[in-house]
Amino acid sequence: MTSEDISKALGNVKYPGFSRDIISFGLVKACEIENDTAVVKIQIQTQDPKIPKKIFEDCHTILDPLMGDPAKVRIEIDVQNPTSTGETSTGASSLPGVKRIIAIGSGKGGVGKSTVSSNLAIALSKQGLKVGLLDCDLYGPSVPLMLGVPHHQPQADSQDRIIPIEAHGLKLMSMGFLLSDNSPVIVRGPLANRYTQQFLQQVAWGELDVLVLDLPPGTGDIQLTLVQTVSIDGAIIVTTPQEVAMIDARKAASMFAKVNVPILGFIENMSYFECDHGKRYHLFGEGGAQRECDRIKVPLLGQIPLEPIIGKRCDGGDPTALLSPSESKASAAFHNVAKTLLDHVSA
Predict the structure, then answer these.
(1) Which residues are CB-neighbours of 124 under 8 A, at least 6 positions away?
(2) What's the whole-model pTM score?
(3) CATH node for 3-80
(4) Options 3.90.1150.10, 3.40.50.300, 3.50.50.60, 3.30.40.10; CATH of 98-345
C-alpha cells in the first residue's frame, strides 16, 4: 500500500450527513505509511462530537481490510472549535465588499423558496440596503424570470469578472443568464461545485450590505460547497405547513447546524388563504413551522399567505414585494420579515 492508495480509499469516506467525501473537502491533511502503518491526519472544526467519531469509525472500516490488521491503521483527528472570525467549519472566507451573506434553503422543492428569496431580497432593498441575489439552483434557475430579466446576458469587466445583472434595485447572478430557455444544465457534482464557486468568487458584486443565496432544494453537494467557499452569516429555512414539508425542512436545518451556520429562523410559505370576507383557510395544515421553531428554539420570521397575485407577478417579472404593504398581505409579510432581519444584516 502507498500513501496514494490510502488517499484514494479515503475518497469513500463521506462527511456525515452529506454525499461528498472528506478528501474533496480538504479535511485530510496527511496520508502516510510509517513502519507498515497507515497514518491519516484529519482536521475538523465542529462542536458535534458525533462527527469526528463517525469519520474515525468509517476510516477504520475502509482501511482495516486494506492493511490486513487494525493495529496497522492510525487515525489522528484534530477537532477544533469553529472560529469566530468570519470563517466556517470548512475554512471559508468572506467575499470582498459583501458585509453579510444569508442563505435561504429548503429540504424539498415546491415550497416557494425562490419566490421567497426574490421577494425578501426586494424587501431588504426597500429597507435601504444594497442587496445582491445569487440563484444557486444550477439545474432549475428561476430568478431571471421572476425578476423580469430572463433574456439578459452578463458581461465581463477588465479583470475578467462577471458583471451581475441589475433589476429592481438588486444585483443578480444565475445560471439562467447563461442558457437559452430550453437548454438544460447537464453536469456532474464536481463541475456543479465549480460553477457555484465561480458565481460566488468571480462575480463583481461590488459593495453589498447583504448577499442572498437562493439555494437549490435538498442537502447535497452544492449546499456544502457554499459553506466551504464563503462564510455564511445565517440561514433561513422555507417550508409549508404540512408535515411532509416539515420532515425535509428539519433535514435542512440539521445540515446547517452540522456546518455551524446559525439558523436565523423559518418562513412558512403558503401559510393560509384568506377570502375576501376575511376568513382564513389553512389549505396545507396549520402550525407546522411554529411547532418546529419552538422545538429547535429559533424564531418564526413570517407566514406568507397564499395569494393568486404572487404567482402572476413572479411570472411577469414584477414580484409582490414591489407592492406597498397596504396593497398585498403577502407583500406586508415579506416587508415585516425584512424589518425583523434588518438588525442582523445591517450590523
Answers:
(1) 131, 209, 210, 212, 338, 341, 342, 345
(2) 0.72
(3) 3.30.300.130
(4) 3.40.50.300
